[in-house]
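Researcher: Here's the sequence for the chain we discussed earlier.
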Amino acid sequence: MVRSFSPSLTHFSVIDHPRVPVQFLILDCPTESSLPYYVAEFKQHRVTTVIRCCQPTYSAQLLVDHGIQLADLPFPDGGVPNASVLSKFLEIISKASQQGKTRFDDSDEEHDAPDDEKPTIAVHCVAGLGRAPVLVAVGLIELGCIAPLDAIDFIRQKRRGAFNKPQITYLDQYKRVLKRHARRVSPPSASSVLSWGGRMMMKFTNKSPQQTTV
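Model: Thanks. This is the structure I predict for it:
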């Protein structure tokens, strides 16, 4: 007997930061047979775009039929995005952020959009533990002026086992490209107040089991 697929058994991680006008959804890779269940989840979370970081395992037609765009931004398993992938990703999140209801005035007061008004971008690789979290971390850094290690920590709270050492190093050295919120500075967080030694430990220690496919 073939086991039925249930989206409740699939690991969807909602990454919703109050400083970011876009919500992200990290997930593993759908297949042609399981895609309808993923689409139901996408509709529930108001997904406007799906970003695929791995090789295709399903047709885009069902997504298109439901008004969801698909962007193929593949890069190597366990790796980091190249300049072309990064440029296309930044274009996508920049456009999505314009659709969000969050508005920032010239003061330092934050005006957060209700969660049900934020557009959502779904990002997946194979297991949703490496390539997809890297792009989402870039999104948090770019759209929320969030410090890289704070972004890593925030995502790891939602998706345990995310990131490998090269990916953490890449993010730690990442420099923002979008300047929309350049004047805004993230408030101190648990990772930002760590000592230098503590931050280095976070960078190079991955307590979760090593993943061979991300």
